[in-house]
Structure formats: structure tokens, C-alpha cells
């Protein structure tokens, strides 16, 4: 994709929202925050208009998903896909009147254990969901979406690009996500003998909104945006582990973990802070 598309997932069950979010983000799309009701969805849309809405029919509040579907069709003119547990004829016929792009059923397994019904995560074809999202976006986008984004354009030299002088040299190169080990906010080595104190302070100040990334071949590149902004553009296999680092937990140099609080990539040890521990655990459990 030439630009990242934004998806609003309207779903009242938190763990289902997180499961669908992980699938959608892994495909390179950005996803809005947890949105369990029609009123919440309207507030999200007014704050940031999505390119597509994934819409459940059973929602919190008085209004259901078909009410929001009608609003998306008649007032907001935003394409949407129903992703719902209900696939009976009555629900399908009612929802079809709102003109969704696609109607997808998610099957929920119920396992009995000691007479207690345990609901597991929804079982739907993740690949099919992403294919449908891409097809719908293509119908509404002037530029075709040929494939899922698999990398970024990164600056090859920090000082040169901060000053943006005339040059015939290549200033940016494509870097595939599979080749990136980590991002860091520590963009320069302040102890480097090649930098004067004044130059180091200038770069430190100018680079507050620049992140450095390191590839598996140890090549450094630079990307505009602080880590909070950068993480929003990355696939699900990238996770922030502390205030200064984002790791790729599926890179082939990922060696493992130490006592649950540290990760090892290419023999380098990274410490997970309490703030990000739960999210790191979720990402590792997702992939391994």
C-alpha cells in the first residue's frame, strides 16, 4: 500500500477485538481503539475517519450494528464489513438492507468443562478476512492495493537528512521488516570520538523525533518519528519493550528470553520494563 489504511473495529467483546486487531495490524493496517457501541463508533469516526469499518451486529447499548451500518451507508459513506456470530436468515436479510460490502460469519466454539460453558476465541479464516479488506479498499481507492506492505523507506544518514542539502547521493533506502532487528530512540553514540560536544548536542536536539533502526546485518538507518509514532506504523511482530526500544520478535536472530524479563536478539540482551511487559507476553504468545 502506498499509505497505511485505517480500520475501525466495532466489537463489544474485548478479547475478540484484540484477536481481530492482531490479525489486521499484522497485515499492515492501523486499527482504532476498542469500540464496543454505536455511540463510541460515532465518536471515533468524528475524531478520525476510518477507511473501512469491521462491524459486529451485537453491540453494547440500545442500538445494534445494523443501525450503525445504516449510518455508515447513508450519512458517513464509509464502506463496512459485517463480522458477526449471527448467520441466520433473519439477521442476514436485515443486515443486507444496509448494503454492507461483505457479510462474514465468525464461529464461536463452546466447550463444556464441569458444566461450565467456556467460550474460545472466534474461528474465522484470517487470510480470507484480509483478502476481503484489501478487495473492499481497492474498490474505494484510486490507487490499487497490490500487496501487504512489507517494509519502510529509511534514511541512510541522519546528519545529512536533518539538514537536507543538495546532493545526488541516495538519501533513503527500502528496508524490509524481516531484516529489521530493533528500533531505538538512542540515535547517536554520545561517546563517539568522531563527534564534537557541540555536534552531539545539536544532533541529540534535532533527533528527538528520529528513531534509529538496526538490521540483521547491523546496518543503521533512521526513520522520522518518535517511538510512540513509529510503533503505530509497524506490523504486529514489532513490540515496544521499554521507553527506548522496539524489538522484532520474529526476526531470525531472535534467540529467546532470560527469566521472562529479558529478550535476546543476536546475542544482545534487552530488558523489558513493567509498562510493556503484558503486551510483550501477548505478542510472544501469539507467534510462539
Helix/strand class = alpha/beta
Share in helix? 25-40%
Mean pLDDT: 82
Shape: elongated
CATH topology of the largest domain: OB fold (Dihydrolipoamide Acetyltransferase, E2P)
What is the CATH architecture annotation of the largest domain?
Answer: Beta Barrel
CATH class of the largest domain: Mainly Beta
Order of helices and strands: EHEHEHEHEEEHEHEEHEEHEEEEEH
Count up the domains: 2
**In total, how many beta strands?**
17
Q: Indicate the proportion of strand residues.
A: 25-35%
Please describe the biggest sheet, giving its number of strands, its sense, and whether it closes into a barrel: 5 strands, parallel
Radius of gyration: 22 Å
- Note the gap between the termini: 28 Å
With strands numbered from the N-terminus, the spatial order across the biggest sheet is 2-1-3-4-5
Question: Which blocks of ≥5 consecutive residues have pLDDT under 50?
Answer: 108-122, 143-147
Count of helices? 9
**CATH homologous superfamily title of the largest domain:** LytTr DNA-binding domain
What this model shows, in words?
This protein folds into two domains: 6-140, Rossmann fold (3-Layer(aba) Sandwich), CATH 3.40.50; 151-287, OB fold (Dihydrolipoamide Acetyltransferase, E2P). It is 31% helix and 26% strand. It contains nine helices and 17 strands. The protein has a five-stranded parallel sheet with strand order 2-1-3-4-5, sandwiched between helices. Strands 12-11-10-14-13 form a five-stranded antiparallel sheet. A three-stranded antiparallel sheet has the order 15-16-17, with no helix packed on it.
